[in-house]
Structure formats: structure tokens, C-alpha cells
Fold this protein.
Amino acid sequence: MSRVKATMYAIAAAGAAVVLTASPASAGTNVSVHTSDPWHSGTAGFQADGETVTVCDNRADGMRATAIFTYTGANSSERVKISDTNGSGNSCATQDFSIPEGNRVLLEVCVQNGANGTLQHCSGSKEGRA
């Protein structure tokens, strides 16, 4: 058998093996971010297993930590703000979501002065998967 034919048979066999091998279920990707200020005053995380977002205020400076969470739901794209409003040193804010497995999520965290304050020291968006 020629070298070209042997190579073609090897490629065909490898391709068949790939097609016949079952692929595992899509695994989600967790995300964690922190504000860009030197103290990392705010942190946020997305937990793929359970689809929860947690945001924490880490500095007693009168500001609140606010996460901006964007995801694709069953029928639409949603953008949600979640704020830790009870001050530094207390419990963090957590919110549960129902997002189809494998869907893209984006997470960002900022600090702001009050509910209507300007978002400051934002982390930039980081991508994950539900």
C-alpha cells in the first residue's frame, strides 16, 4: 500500500473514532471579578453550578459594591444589577438565576455612592458559561 493511501486510511479511522466518541455534557465556567481600585473594594462571582451571583462590599468607605450581570435566558437577554447595600463586614448579596446550561454570561463589578451614584472603579466584563 502506498504511503498516501496509508495516511488517508489513518485519517479516516481517526475521524471515525472522533465521531463515535460521546462528548461529555457542557460544563459551566465560574467567573470572579474585583474592582479596579487599589483596595479591591468590591468583588463579585458567578457560580455556574446553581447559577448564582454574589457581590461583596469589602471596604468601609460609604460606597456600595454593585455587580452588573448580563445573561441570555430562554427568550431574551437580561442585564441585572445586584448591590451589597448593608456595608462592609456584613453578609454579601446573592441572587439566584435560571439560565440554560451552556449559555454565555458576563459579570462586572463596580462601587457606587448610593443607589443612583455613578459607577466607579469598574472591573471590566469577564465571560463565563452557565
About this structure: The first strand starts at residue 31 and ends at 34. Residues 1-24 have pLDDT under 50 and may be disordered.
